[in-house]
Amino acid sequence: MTQENFLIRTIVNESEVNLMLSWAAFEGWNPGKYDSQTFYYTDPKGFFIGELNDQPIGCISAIAYDLTFGFLGFYIVQSEFRNQGFGIQLWQKAMEYLGNRNIGLDGVIAQQKNYEKSGFKIAYNHIRYQGIGGGKISDKLIDLNRISWEELITYDRQCFPTNRQGFLHNWIQQKETIALGFINNHKLQGYGVIRPAENGYRIGALFADNFEVADIIYQGLIADKKDLPVFIDIPSSNLLAQQLVKKYAMYPVFEAARMYNKNFPDIAINKIFGVTSLELG
Prior knowledge:
This protein is of the alpha+beta class and 281 residues long. The chain is built from eight helices and 13 strands. It has two domains: 3-117, Gcn5-related N-acetyltransferase (GNAT) (Aminopeptidase), CATH 3.40.630; 128-274, Aminopeptidase, CATH 3.40.630. Strands 1, 2, 3, 4, 5, 6, 7, 8, 9, 10, 11, 12 and 13 form a 13-stranded mixed β-sheet that branches.
């Protein structure tokens, strides 16, 4: 097989994102069951498939949130085609697409040195914890769809490098997803989302003003998931997030590094008790 038979193209519909999700599941990344539509419509031009002799063998996503910030994910080459130069071509395509933006990614341990060679620096680690569902719902929690979009976007912007209104609109309305906001004195002080994954349920985002709010949101999200596996990816630098997973006897199962190729965004890490996703940031 030769490099001349390798073609990288932009995917044409969200069903092809499902192929990428299936590959991610095989790698053990445990993606959400219904993430494809949300991911695709965040940036339909930012998903790439690599084909060798018309056979899909690799993929990568490069989401341009705006003119200043982008995020890389789904960087996968099928195992039998690795170390043959196909992966670097996918990488170059994604980097070319995102151009001069500040780019973020979550790098698995095995790839971090390669990302550093491309100018990426580690900001902190994301550690995935697994636990068991079952909790109680506070009367201060309300369906996130009842909160004004302006208030939600304003809160989310504290914890994400740019406005992602389009993404959030689809994210919190995914099938079988629960999205809750914590209201105190008529003010949003945190929100959380839980969605079904290939294995159990994934929490993300979980943003909160403090430990107490995060704890209440966490309990509300897992309340009806009694005895089912739940997962959350926390920033290692948030000590309060570490206390939260310890409180519920959760244990680490996966680790990646949040990396950026330019500046580290000015976001409130102390409010991030669970990152939204490792694929789109």
